[in-house]
Amino acid sequence: MDKTISSVAEAVADIPDDADVMIGGFGGSGAPIELIHALIDRFRATGSPKNLTVINNNAGNGFIGIAAMIKAGMVKKMVCSFPRSSNAEAFNEKFLAGEIELDLVPQGTLAERIRAAGAGIPAFYTPTSFGTELAEGKPTEEFDGKMYVRERWLKADFALIKGEKGDVVGNMTYRMAARNFNPLMAMAAEKTIAQVAELVETRSIDPQQVVTPGIFVDAIVQVSEPEQEEVLVRTGVVY
Hints:
By secondary structure, the chain is of the alpha/beta class. The protein has a single domain, classed as Glutaconate Coenzyme A-transferase (3-Layer(aba) Sandwich), CATH 3.40.1080.10. The chain has 7 helices and 11 strands. The strands form 2 sheets. Strands 1, 2, 3, 4, 8, 9, 10 and 11 form an 8-stranded mixed sheet that branches. A 3-stranded antiparallel sheet has the order 5-7-6. Helix 5 packs across helix 6. The model has no long low-confidence stretch (mean pLDDT 96). This is 3-oxoadipate CoA-transferase, alpha subunit.
């Protein structure tokens, strides 16, 4: 089944208000900037989607990507590990004003909660955060003399991810470190929307090179020359 979409605007057109949205990337590596900016364009034109819960490793940098979403007022809650990154002015401003919620999750726990959702595992135990504020209200249990915290899987309505090469049925590869959260999020969302630098026909990718099988991808769009977050931040771009 051909899953190609003609534009990034069309790819994100069905994301509604109040949706939970996973966004791939580790900082700028693997961040689907064009899909994010298409979502911002739609919000500016229509006022929707709003009240989003965004799940990412951080809360954005500068005034592009996720930071631009926050600045625009689209995000009601961030679920992340590093809200204070190199230039988190957009998040800081909203958080200190009480205009955005924060669910702080240790990075390994965040990755495992997402992976667990994709694997159909509703909960797991980890020693991370035991005895801290992050564990308050969560069940704990002792195993072999060590205390563990029970964490739930983390699902989303949509995942926006970025790959290097993809075929028309959604099989994907990633470029180096851009692999990070993207494959996990592709498996943990009800609908996964992917942008790839190169879109090819079926059977064009060696099956042994496929990282994300097409069964986990619902829509795929080609962005031949994707922007890099760090470059945009460094040059002072404001989206």
